[in-house]
User: Which sequence fits this backbone?
C-alpha cells in the first residue's frame, strides 16, 4: 500500500502545535504592550515629580520665566530640571517609549470637571505627550489615576491638539495627545 498523505492524528498534532505557538505570540504581544504602558506612566510620574521638586527648591516651576506660577518656556524647563539633576540628559531628549511621542511642558485654561469658564475653570501646568500616542494608553492611565473621561479631570486626551480634551473614541488605537495637569 502506498500512503501519500498525513493521518488525522498527524494533522491534529500539527494544529495543536500551531495553536500553542500562536497563543504564545499573542500573549507576548500583550506583555510588551503592558510593559510599554507602565514605562510611559513611569516617565510621566518622573517628569511631574521633577517639576514639583523644582518648585519646592526654587519657589517656582522650571520654565516659569515670569514667575507667575505657569510654565511658559518648554526648553528652559528642561534645562533647569537637568541643571538641578532632577532629570538625566537622556530624559532631556523628551522621547517616550512610543515611537514619535515626545514630552513637553506648558500651561492652559480648561473647564474643570465639566464646569463653565468661571470659578471652576482650570488653569494649570501640564505635561503634554503627543501627537502619536495611542488612545488606549491614555485611557488606561486615566482609569487608573483619574476619572476615566478624556475631557475632564487631570488626565485629558485629544486627537485635535486641544489640552481641554475630548471624549474617547471607539477605536482605541486612534492617536493623539495626552495632557496631564500635574499641579492641581
Assistant:
Amino acid at each position: 500500500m502506498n500512503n501519500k498523505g498525513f493521518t488525522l492524528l498527524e494533522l491534529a498534532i500539527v494544529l495543536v502545535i500551531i495553536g500553542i505557538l500562536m497563543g504564545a505570540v499573542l500573549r507576548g504581544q500583550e506583555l510588551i504592550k503592558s510593559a510599554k504602558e507602565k514605562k510611559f506612566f513611569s516617565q510621566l510620574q518622573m517628569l511631574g515629580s521633577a517639576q514639583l521638586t523644582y518648585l519646592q527648591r526654587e519657589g517656582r516651576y522650571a520654565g516659569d520665566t515670569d514667575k507667575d506660577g505657569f510654565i511658559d518656556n518648554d526648553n528652559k524647563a528642561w534645562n533647569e530640571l537637568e541643571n538641578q539633576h532632577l532629570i538625566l540628559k537622556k530624559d532631556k531628549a523628551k522621547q517616550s517609549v512610543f515611537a514619535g511621542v515626545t514630552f513637553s511642558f506648558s500651561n492652559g485654561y480648561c473647564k474643570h470637571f465639566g464646569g463653565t469658564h468661571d470659578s471652576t475653570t482650570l488653569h494649570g501646568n501640564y505635561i503634554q505627550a503627543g501627537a502619536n500616542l495611542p488612545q488606549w494608553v491614555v485611557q488606561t492611565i486615566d482609569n487608573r489615576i483619574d476619572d476615566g473621561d478624556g475631557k475632564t479631570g487631570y488626565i485629558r486626551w485629544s486627537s485635535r491638539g486641544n489640552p481641554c480634551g475630548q471624549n474617547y473614541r471607539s477605536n482605541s488605537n486612534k492617536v493623539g495627545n495626552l495632557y496631564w495637569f500635574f499641579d492641581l
User: Anything to note?
Assistant: The first helix runs from residue 8 to 58.
